[in-house]
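so my prof wants the structure for this chain in the tokens format not the other one, which i didnt know existed until like an hour ago. anyway here's the sequence
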Amino acid sequence: METNYLPSGFLPIVVQFVLALGFIVVTMIVTHNIGPSRKGKVKDDPFECGIEVVGDARTPISVKYFLVAILFVLFDVEVIFMYPWAVNFKKLGMFGFVEMVLFMALLLAGFYYIIRKGVLKWEE
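here's what i got, hopefully its the right format
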């Protein structure tokens, strides 16, 4: 069964795309032209959560911060693998249980190694 797609079949999609794009362009132009454009030191100052800006944004950050963040993501992703296992626990049986115990042993061995190396000690 061969189906021929005619360009007229795509006309509603093209019209909707053109209208959406036109709406975006018109909205950007109108808001740029009628919006307030007051400039000043206070207005142009970066602002976040009500905290005053202190220092330079380009100051170096300790590598420990990034290391802790990467380790958090690593162990967090490992925990994600436990969800499908828990859903299929009965179907996997003893074999699945042994595999998860092995997985947890390897995960905890890595965590123990990190603790012994002192990676998570924030202050030296």
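also thought this was worth mentioning. The chain has a mean pLDDT of 84.
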